[in-house]
Design goal:
By secondary structure, the protein is α/β, with parallel strands linked by helices. About 50% of the residues lie in helices and about 15% in strands. The chain is built from eleven helices and nine strands. Strands 3-2-1-4-5-6 form a six-stranded parallel sheet, with helices on both faces. A three-stranded mixed sheet has the order 7-8-9, with helices on one face. The two termini are about 40 Å apart. The structure holds NADP nicotinamide-adenine-dinucleotide phosphate (NAP).
Length: about 300
Amino acid sequence: MTDAPLFRRLALLGCGLIGSSIARAARARGGIAGEIVANARSARSLERIRELGIADRVEADPAEAVREADCVILCAPVGAYAALAAAIAPHLAPGAILSDVGSTKQSVIRDVGPLVPAGVHFVPAHPLAGTEHSGPDAGFATLFEGRWCLLTPPPGTQDESVARIEALWRRMGSMVSVMEPSHHDRVLAIVSHLPHLIAFTICGTADDLADETRQQVLQFAASGFRDFTRIAASDPEMWRDVFLNNREALLEMLARFTEDAQAMARAVRWGDTAYIEDKIGRGRKIRRSLIEINQA
Ligand code: NAP
């Protein structure tokens, strides 16, 4: 006799890069969900999810998608969570676990927490895995392997529900850590949100320069710039929502970065070679240490 899966019915609200990767990983690894129900916003994505055959059922109505699901995961951009949560709240099964994958955590707890009905367990989560691609075709079953997933349960969350969401991510190949939501948002502001802000900005600056000088700046993009364009290819809606929903931490990190960039500018102006070498050396060290812990 085979063991029962972790969840009888898993509902994914949003089935783009992250949602479709969860569906694929759950299928590929087994023991996770007896049935997978997927929901997306547009008719085009719903049709594509059907064609790809990555879910057992595709539902256009979020309320219908969560019916009798014992685990529901919000996988849409974080700005859509409040409306989605309001739409599904009356239809969540008693005892169900409601989780998410959003890149910001305080805003998710603020927007979704008050709408969670009594008897439903809310366990916010954030997989630190992704690519610059989006939509149901972008997902793949191994996306979460060897990557961290951070859980930020609000005080009073039932331990058993946290343990089941932890088991879900471990079964998909992730390492799991529990973190305080405000700490999560500050850490992610520096390691993810600020780098994206810089990438979007530098691409805009180069494009403006090309317009101004009427010269082919972008045609000669060298490796440094090319790496930024990969990050800058990310989904605009998703990133707009991340910036607006982690505003304070992002602005704090941007201010710190701006100060440090000014210090570097001063070192360049005055030919302070020791300062410049030190900063470049630190960058190299950080890259090496990421490679050592398999997170590069
Ligand atoms: P994505 O590929 O663009 O997919 C988003 C999904 O949400 C699509 O199915 C989309 O449906 C649906 N959706 C969009 N707006 C919606 C709305 N207003 N109401 C209901 N559904 C809506 O995005 P993703 O990269 O998977 O990101 C999903 C979540 O994961 C976000 O909260 C993001 O912060 C988080 N996350 C992303 C990454 C990353 O690297 N991309 C990493 C970790 C966590 P349509 O296709 O029909 O528009």
